[in-house]
């Protein structure tokens, strides 16, 4: 009889342990309270704001750096004042609109130089933004298929080639 008693107690203890295990699994599985995420509890460092990589000034504003002798004490060379681009207005003859990029408020036009020679990857391409001065013209408008310039003689439009 002693063996039966131990058997009953063993069954009861196993039954209680199984119930506790089942209760623990159900409690963990269906508990709506989530454990706090350790990654969220730590303070994150502030991300610095990166400065603009390119200024809004046109490259013609820096032409004096290339034309005057940097290694001379008196910096002799041709004088390019602020009105130099207005005085030496070029022609759009031989210029070709290669493409436009419009991303949000940013509008950029790619202008190439057309010629009869075969095109190579080293051919110069000018990148123009709205309001920039370029060869005596001011970029007034950039659309999907044209660029409008304001020059000494009025407005001029450069369209995609046909």
Description:
- There is one protein chain.
- 7% of the residues are buried.
- Mean pLDDT is 76; it is low at 80-88.
- The longest helix has 29 residues, at 2-30.
- It is built from four helices and seven strands, in the order ααααβββββββ.
- The chain is an alpha+beta fold.
- It has a domain at 89-115 and 123-161: SH3 type barrels (Roll).
Using the coordinates above, name the CATH class of the domain at 89-115 and 123-161.
Mainly Beta
Query: Biggest sheet, open or closed, and with what strands and sense?
Result: 4 strands, antiparallel
What general form does the structure show? rod-shaped
Order of helices and strands: HHHHEEEEEEE
What is the spatial order of strands in the main beta sheet?
A: 4-5-6-7
Average pLDDT figure: 76
Distance separating the two termini: 107 Å
The CATH architecture of the domain at 89-115 and 123-161 can be given as Roll
Q: Work out the strand percent.
A: 25-35%
Q: What is the CATH topology assignment of the domain at 89-115 and 123-161? A: SH3 type barrels
What's the helical proportion of residues? 25-40%
